[in-house]
Write a structure and sequence with these properties.
Helices cover 42% and strands 18% of the residues. The longest helix has 16 residues, at 172-187. Helix 1 packs across helix 7. It has 195 residues and is an alpha/beta fold.
C-alpha cells in the first residue's frame, strides 16, 4: 500500500516569483504534482486554461464554494477570487506523490486550519526593492493594481514567521531546487525498524 505523502504549501508576497518557481519545478521534476488553482481573473497573455489556472466565471466559482469543492479559497488584492480544488489534492496525496500548492497567504492560512500536517514554505524576495522591480517589470498590471499589490505585499512579508521554512528567491532555478529537495525529504518513508 502506498503511504500518503505530505503536502507542501508554497506561499509568499505578490510578484515574489511563486508561479515562476512552480513552473520551473513542473518543467524539471515531472514526479512532483502541482495543484492548478481556479480563478475568476482573466487570463494574462500566454496563460493556458487548465495549465496555469482554471479560469472560471464568478457564478461557477460561487457554485464551487457552496458545494465544498475547494480546499481553500480567497478574494485576492480586493479583486479576483482564487481557490484550490480539493479532489485533485486528495488524489495526489493518496497516491503518495510529492504534492505542492502554490497559493497566497490567505489560502495558506486556510490550509493550515484543515491540514496542519502540511509543510508551509515561505518564498521571500532578496529585498523590497527587488520585489518592486519584479512587479513593475512584469508589466501585466495597471499602476493602480501595482499599488494595491505592493500594499498587500507589505502585509504578506510580515507573515513569514507563520511558516515552517523560508526560501529566498535570489534565482528561480536555485529556489526551485531547494523547494524540491525539501519536498523529497518530506516524502521519504521513515526507515524500517525491522531487523
Amino acid at each position: 500500500m502506498t503511504e500518503r505523502s505530505r503536502l507542501v504549501v508554497l506561499a509568499g508576497p505578490t510578484a515574489v516569483g511563486k508561479g515562476t518557481v512552480a513552473a520551473d519545478v513542473r518543467a524539471r521534476h515531472p514526479e512532483v504534482w502541482i495543484s492548478v488553482s481556479a480563478t475568476t481573473r482573466p487570463a494574462r497573455p500566454g496563460e493556458v486554461d487548465g495549465v496555469h489556472y482554471h479560469f472560471v466565471s464568478d457564478d461557477q466559482f460561487t457554485e464551487m464554494v457552496e458545494t465544498g469543492q475547494f480546499l481553500e479559497w480567497a478574494t485576492v488584492h480586493k479583486a479576483a477570487r482564487y481557490g484550490t480544488p480539493r479532489q485533485p489534492v486528495d488524489e495526489a496525496l493518496a497516491a503518495g506523490r510529492p504534492a505542492m500548492l502554490e497559493i497566497d497567504l490567505q489560502g495558506a492560512r486556510q490550509v493550515r486550519e484543515t491540514m496542519p500536517e502540511a509543510l508551509f514554505v515561505f518564498l521571500k524576495p532578496p529585498s523590497w526593492d527587488e520585489l518592486v522591480r519584479r512587479l513593475v517589470g512584469r508589466g501585466t498590471e495597471s499602476a493602480e493594481e501595482r499599488e494595491r499589490r505592493l500594499d498587500t505585499a507589505q502585509v504578506e512579508l510580515a507573515a513569514e514567521k507563520e511558516f515552517d521554512v523560508t526560501i529566498v528567491n535570489h534565482e528561480v532555478h536555485a529556489a526551485a531546487e531547494e523547494l524540491v529537495a525539501l519536498m523529497m525529504l518530506n516524502c521519504e518513508q521513515p526507515p524500517s525498524t525491522d531487523l
